[in-house]
Fold this protein.
Amino acid sequence: MNSLFLKKNADKRLRAGHVWVYSNEIDTKRSPLKDFQTGEVIKICAADDKVMGIGYINPNTLICARIVSRNPKYDLSVGLLVDRFKTALALRDSLFSSPYYRLIYGDSDGLSGLIVDRFANVVVVQINTAGMEAMKDMIVEALVKALEPCAIVMRNDTANRKLEGLESYVEVAYGELPEEVFVEENETRFVIPVETGQKTGWFYDHRMNRQRMQSYIQGKRVLDLFSYVGGWGVQAAVHGAESVLCVDASQKALEYAQRSADLNEVQDKLQTCQGDVFDILKALRQDQEKFDVVVLDPPAFIKRRKDQRQGELAYRRINQMAMQVLERGGTLISASCSMHLPHQTLIDILNTSSRHIDRQLQVLEQGHQGPDHPIHPAIPETAYLKSFICRVSGN
């Protein structure tokens, strides 16, 4: 196993618990990056030769190495993966009564670059780094040993893979995928597109926030913006909303939302509208349509730091437009999955948006990602989700 040596004092973040090594932190005289293979398993050493851990390297990326184990006696093997999977499994099974959850959340579960979502006996995997791609066969073997699934699907089609020099592909890596895959959340059942949908086909991170929504939608007219397959909207219909309108750019996603409404026998409560959310909000306002509850859960408007200014403007615009179709005294549930958007900045955006249209805003509840997306205390990037339940009234 080759060793990667850090510059003097470049080990401080690692000693504090972080697991990433940046290319400018490496002593390239002692360990030239050109000497390493992409995805190679390595020892990561401080300037004083102390082994900081075992990990893998991609010499062509800014984050060029990641620690997987602090114990230098370990190797990145099937045994280590099975141990990590079982540790993660014990936590999830203690939290959730049914086998529907994010099993592995990358760095937070000690497997940087790996995402695993579980849908009962179907497992969906996302590999985002070259090091984890090199371990793909071991990952499949370890998941079979730990979970005994009927199928393992690889959703390796994220944008991050291009940065790692990896190809994009989707495949069933093990077993036979059932014709339909289901997920259960908050006493609601959904059929989901694990091969063709966004990310792994479902977003478990808002589970707790969607549960809290139930207190605000009894007998209400609900507008679910950027609804995808109806995670918010179908649950609102199931848990007491009078009516729900799901709006999304994807007609296929809306068809899944309708199928899930049928599955839960709330099809009479749910309608769908396909198109650009900004355009549809404008049309709803022109038609003087009003809703008691508006759910706003957009995609990340700030994917990179250089998108910060334009992204914040987009969040302000969409929140203001959402408030304009909200009854006075109505409830706005506003969320952001942009890692680069600080918690307080979103509150400021909500306040500014409400004042611009002469409304008064009260934040009633604040939410974040569920416990199957645990936050690594040394890696702030693992804390990305923000959710606010607000009352928006007149002055």
User: Anything to note?
Assistant: The longest strand covers residues 326-336. The CA atoms of residues 74 and 373 lie 26 Å apart. The chain has three domains: 2-69, 78-179, 198-394. The chain has a mean pLDDT of 96.
